[in-house]
Amino acid sequence: QLQASGGGLVQAGGSLRLSCAASGRTLSNYHMGWFRQAPGREREFVAAESRSRITYYTDSVKGRFTISRDNAKNTVYLQMNSLKPEDTAVYYCATSQRASYSAIYYYTSSYGYWGQGTLVTVSS
How crowded is the C-beta side of 40, counted as CA atoms within 13 Å? Predict the structure, then answer.
């Protein structure tokens, strides 16, 4: 099970840290991704980290968001700084064990297991 938390209401320019805690699986064995879905829009890629700790970001969050993991806590984080109203969405974490991850990390279909999502609302 993946449990995402840390969402909330924040003013533009503020920060939030999302957490994705796993039970029943060891996250160090997985590639991890964060996606988001705004109302009326498709779920989109935000950030990912491979098992070998290579990180990937969508262009709109580069320099503002950081993905990391704490294997001892079996948790993946998404630190979000300088938040903008357009970051408002439900954020989901997901796991992948796909090969050739560097070529497919941004596809939702590359991930086999998803958390329930946490809502981030950024006010202007």
Answer: 0
